[in-house]
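## retry 2 of 3
previous attempt timed out at serialization; input unchanged, resubmitting
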Amino acid sequence: MLRTRIYRFAILLSVILINAGCDQLSKAIVRDNIPAYDRQHFADGHLMLTKVENAGAFLSMGDQLPEAAKNILLLGLPLFLLLGSVWLLIKPHGLSRVGMISLCCVIGGGLGNLIDRFLYGSVTDFLFLQFGLLKTGIFNLADVSITAGAICIVGDQIWRTYKQG
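## retry succeeded, writing output
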């Protein structure tokens, strides 16, 4: 039983650290090698690499807030949510294995962005996708982890509800 709990903890911690680590590594490469606002296009223009420091949240929302409000909304609240998510992993409330791994992706991505905010006062974003009229904002690998994890959690809950009903 203890061995199983240790393995489970090691796997979940590994998923969190791999997500946060890949995010931080990619941002370090971008910070060191791409000038601010430089644009490099790939895949017939569908993928663009650039470097933008985002002092706000999603699509720079909140970057004009007073410093105290920014600290509460962009540091305090995410930290509180990450700690709550870690608590869900420690005391699972009906999360499946897929749900737990997905939550680890959300935590790892959130941790990656939170590290940026603590160390640099902003989050480094560098990826942009465009397919015809469909465009993304500029984002990073932490955002990919958070989004993919959230989608998988919702999908897993829908699937589990469908199987039970």
